[in-house]
Amino acid sequence: MDYESSSEGPDRKLNRRSALKMAGLAGITGLAGCSGGGSSGGSAETEGGSESSGSDEPLTVGALYALSGSTEVIGRPMMNSTELAIQQINDAGGIDGREIELVKADTASAPQTGIEKSRQLINRDGCSVVFGAYTSAMRNAITDIYVENEVPLFYPTLYEGGVCREIEGAEGFSGEINIPQESLEWVFFNGAVPKQQIQPYLPWLMEEYDVSSFYLIGSDYVWPHTTNAVVDDFVQENGGEIVAEDYVPLGFTDWGSKLSDIQSSDADAVYFTTVGTSMVEMLNQAGSVGLIDEMVWAGNIMSEQEAIAAGDAADGVLTSAPYFTSLESDANDDYISSYEEAYGTDTTPNFVAEAAYWGPLMLRDALVEHAPGASSGAAVKSALENPISLDAPQGTVEMDPGTHHATLQSRVGEFDAESGTFEVLNEFGQIEPSGITVAEGCLNV
């Protein structure tokens, strides 16, 4: 039996423990939330904006990911990871003894559905904070809902930036500013931005693999266009050139003519910003005609989930990310083993799923330290606007209050199809988000 966010009243409300007892972990696709979240929570607010400790009312949070559609391949491990973190928090005593209740919602990989589900999570289910979204198109579509209702959105995906700063060369997709200050106030970003991936990665790639010319291919929405604008800048700064730039619709799978164009371009490398099933099919079809072996294939979006789906075709393909499952650390070992125990191996953790995992852990730390009784979105936001660091599976991560962005680790990996993991080829260390596409201190907090 599956449980989703319900409008049938209190008798239908379930926390995760009771849902597990009734359904079993593997069958859950949604959990019913309790009322009392959002701005109408049961704790009294203090003058400082946080709320009094000692509340025994559960904190209701939402998880909004693609469990169907073109980005399900990546959305499902993100949902699993957020759910896993919240279960671990509850098993360890919650937030000073206060349980977290999770409401799960499926965007179906469609921005309009994401808008509808966001409204339900906030207005019907009373969520005080929501973790979710994968593509920038989805995030841009839903952000206004969170701003209007003053509910924080935790966005765990790499993205283009454009925070209080124009992204040159991407007009028509980013606008002058992609994330204005009024939107930034209610969104917390714990995925990577170009400074943390592209800036160290491209010079290394060009030197290490003797690459001077690139063919850029991406899905046709904001993130690939703005990312490729940044890629173009760094390629030129390092003496290279872009020989072609092309885009395909989301969900595109018929790669025959596009691969012919790539093959005839004489580029040294393909830099891809395709997502979901489009990426998997691109690699499968490129591998079947031998194109993967003829050129360097690199990007900064492919994770273990898509690479494993592509199988042998993805062998040797490069990516930049804060996290790989192959990292050796106690925190990562705990994450991987707990994930596999709960969800098996049909899906796999990856760098956006890892961010979806430690986001709730950061929320827990912020609330325990600053507002254990918080139930309103404003009180949760206030607690998160403090310097917070934790030991995540990728290593030490920190949230910067002035930008609502995270300081993250930066690495490059090469996929090994036999093991289904990335071999880490280089580590660039911990990198702050400010610079290039994120203006320093945009928020005065």
Summarize the model shown:
With 445 residues, this protein is of the alpha/beta class.
Task: Explain the overall architecture.
The chain has 445 residues and is an alpha/beta fold. It folds into two domains: 263 residues, Response regulator (Rossmann fold); 155 residues, Rossmann fold. 37% of the residues lie in helices and 19% in strands. It is built from 14 helices and 14 strands. Strands 6, 7, 8, 9, 10, 11, 12, 13 and 14 form a nine-stranded mixed sheet that branches. The chain has a five-stranded parallel sheet with strand order 2-1-3-4-5, with helices on both faces. Strand 1, helix 2 and strand 2 form a beta-alpha-beta unit. The chain starts with 15 loop residues before the first helix and ends in a 14-residue tail after the last strand.
Furnish the topology, listing elements before pairings.
Elements: H1 16-23, E1 59-65, H2 72-91, E2 100-106, H3 111-124, E3 129-132, H4 136-149, E4 153-155, H5 181-184, E5 187-189, H6 194-208, E6 213-219, H7 222-237, E7 241-248, H8 256-264, E8 269-273, H9 276-288, H10 291-294, E9 296-299, H11 304-310, E10 318-321, H12 330-343, H13 351-370, H14 377-384, E11 388-392, E12 395-400, E13 405-416, E14 421-431
Parallel strand pairs: 1-2, 1-3, 3-4, 4-5, 6-7, 6-8, 8-9, 9-10
Antiparallel strand pairs: 10-13, 11-12, 12-13, 13-14
Helix pairs in contact: 2-13, 3-4, 6-7, 9-11, 13-14
